[in-house]
Amino acid sequence: MTDLQKEKIRSLRMQGVSYLKIGGILGVPDNTVRSFCRQCGLGEEAKNTCCCKQCGKLIKIIPKRKPKIFCSDECRAEWWNTHPENVQRKAVYHFTCAYCGKPFTAYGNKGRKYCCHQCYIADRFGSDRHE
Fold this sequence. Notes:
This protein has helices at 3-14, 19-26, 30-40, 73-82, 117-125, and strands at 49-51, 58-60, 92-96, 103-107. It is an alpha+beta fold. The chain folds into two domains: 3-63 and 70-84, no CATH class; 92-125, no CATH class. A hairpin with a 6-residue loop joins strand 3 and strand 4 (103-107). Helix 2 (19-26) packs across helix 3 (30-40).
């Protein structure tokens, strides 16, 4: 087995993938995968742990609960900030600014009227403002 295959086996096993599936993915006999995992301590106890998607730290899986993907809020925020292409934004709304007439988009707020704060101030307080 190559070092690349060994690393792939480690990562797949920590994700909870079975010996048979790992063998099928890498083209290695499942008994070879099983013996490698036992030598490295990735046997049956690895089913109760997974790796943090950002830092690779081991996370214990609590039975009858959804498995965690990240070890902490910091790792979660860092991963999502570095992978914006994976964000599935469903609440994107398209508007035209009530003051300047420019088209703009807003996420998660379907009641927006203005493209920026300056347009809001100009429209609300523009000519009627007493100084």
